[in-house]
Automatic annotation (TrEMBL):
Broad class of the protein's primary localization: membrane
Pfam families hit by this protein: FtsX
Family: Belongs to the ABC-4 integral membrane protein family. HrtB subfamily.
Gene Ontology, cellular component aspect: plasma membrane
Protein name: Putative hemin transport system permease protein HrtB
Organism per entry: Lentilactobacillus kefiri DSM 20587 = JCM 5818
Amino acid sequence: MYLALKEIRHEKLRYGLIISMVVLIAYLIFILTSLAFGLAGENTQAINSWDAKSIVLNKDSNISLTQSTITNDQAKDAKLSSKEAVIGSTPVVAKHKGKEKISASFIGARKSQFIIKDLKLTSGHKARNNHQIVVDEKFKTDGYKLGDKVTLNSFKDKYQIVGFTKNAKLNVAPVAYGTMATWKYLRGIPNAPVSGSAIVSKNAKYNAHDSHLKTYSMNKFISKLPGYSAENTTFGFMIGFLMIISLVIIAVFLYILTMQALPTYAVLRAQGIPARALVSTITSQSLILMASGVVIGALLAALTGSLLPVGVPMAFNIPVLTWISIGLMIMGVIGAAIPAQKIATVDPVSVIGG
């Protein structure tokens, strides 16, 4: 460690450039990871708030909430308990004169079931009739306030915003909670014998006992949300490639520096300093460079997160970012293996003589 620090102090510019490269890579990885978790969260915030373990959909709905319908008879035969709730879902566009239109996901639910019972509000109260809704705070960010009356889609009926709730987004769109009767009206089936779109349950092994319905785990349902898996896979590959790039960069830089200093290492070997000590120096240098770059990159990412607008979906998952940091450190050690092997096998006579 002493020799490693001594050499880094002596060659400040060279090692400073390496640290700068590591900082940029670590910063980019942290930002991309946080964006990935932020986008994933905006797809599933509402689902996570329900704390449900399974969901029952029409088996012909292609695991799509908006394409599924459950009849009254099917819901009755499902023998719902306090751990189950029927919901209806449909996309809507909320409009209010003088304010920006908002594409949202309307969720109809019964106030006697846990979806509405467990709904936590940041202000206002829950919907008490068919012309009241509770909306995600995205509406407040866009200038909407309690008491505003909005129209949904092309219907002339007005719905009053009576409450705001936090972290209620489904497939990126903010959620508007209302009654089941309102959902049926918006779907254009006010008198149809339809109970809802799905049954969500806190029981992972819940069975609706109907051949036309199928139970899915919540993880399976989430993975089928439009764009969800594609987004996560894309970010995963980007982060993986950046990890590999960091490995190549640290290996190339250390190898070049080692080859330039090879005569010095040969002299040290000739003086009786064991190869193990010199290899330890290279490994220590790599760890110091990676640790410095990761720490600075993390600080820059945190600063960026604090300066970005509220609308940018960014979530810092500390455990995951910690493992990524450890991964970068391991990549640094692996990158130091090539120059370390060169030092371990150097022949002092041939190097000094040459």
